[in-house]
Amino acid sequence: MTTFLLVRHGAHDWLDRGLAGRLPGVSLNARGWLQAEQLVRRLEGRDIAAIYSSPQPRARETAAPLAGRRRLPIRILEAFDEIEFGQWTGLGFDVLQRRDADRWRQWCERRSQAQPPGGETLPQVRRRAVQGLEQLRERYPAGAVLIASHGDVIKAVLATALRMSLDDLERFELAPASISILEAGEGWQQVRLVNGTD
Question: Is 82 a catalytic residue?
Fold first, then answer.
């Protein structure tokens, strides 16, 4: 059995303001760095076989203190990258509601069908993330693997395990630096924790 510790990156200055997406140079702010340091304490006593991260700096930075303490490398896996938001990258929520209201509303309400202009669909995101998990499950058939990623990417993984529609992702929250736990074996998955913040 593989235990996946799915960690949303810590706080950054775009949080609750807009779609940072894959905008270059989006790093943790002071609060985010504190959250990253607190992960070390929160995961104390838990064996971790490997640490993987999205390529985005805020995800790598969230895993860095723990990786340093455990003397484990942070391996980058594109499967857990942030959503490619295309032309929406770097736009504030207020701008999206003003400039592209219909498509933005569809994105918020019908994630299974919506697509940002020039970006990825959520089914595409889910497919790559689930494939990434399966690769890691085969590589680490017994042990815990920490994955630092992004809210909607982790939500898509959890929704898949729970057989939820991607349209329902707004029904639950994943706070910055939260830990969700998914256990997986050959042909099965079980969600053990969602949005753990203690």
Answer: yes
